[in-house]
Specification:
The protein is mostly beta strands. The strands form two sheets. Strands 2, 4, 5, 6, 9, 10 and 11 form a seven-stranded mixed sheet that branches. A four-stranded antiparallel sheet has the order 1-3-8-7, with no helix packed on it. The chain is globular and about 45 Å long.
């Protein structure tokens, strides 16, 4: 069992920055991949960025060069630094953790990010 708690969302003007945090607890040693997804009203949930236990990262084309995902294994926390935010980034952002030994996906409750023009 893994629990994920996101924080750091809020309202920011276009061009601003935010850092999202996701703290994992429970069976943390079973996690091999963590990522951030977002879902706007009426739209499909989409991958924003992911990071493996080895540090390999992947980003959606829409956020490349602006967002950075990182992982602090000592604190069992994954971060998403979002720079040069755009109104189209407005969404609920969800933390995801993927396990390997017993495959399963865990989700946080989400944190709202709103970017004003």
């Amino acid at each position: 069992q893994v629990q994920l708690v996101e924080s750091g969302g809020g309202l920011v003007q276009a061009g601003g920055s935010l850092r999202l945090s996701c703290a994992a607890s429970g069976s943390i040693f079973s996690i091999n991949v963590m990522g951030w997804y977002r879902q706007a009203p009426g739209k499909q949930r989409e991958l924003v960025a992911l990071i493996t236990s080895g540090g390999t990262t992947n980003y959606a084309d829409s956020v490349k060069g602006r967002f950075t995902i990182s992982r602090d294994n000592a604190k069992n926390t994954v971060y998403l630094r979002m720079n040069n935010l755009k109104p189209e980034d407005t969404s609920v952002y969800y933390c995801n953790a993927k396990t390997a030994i017993i495959p399963y996906n865990y989700w946080g409750q989400g944190t709202q990010v709103t970017v004003s023009s």
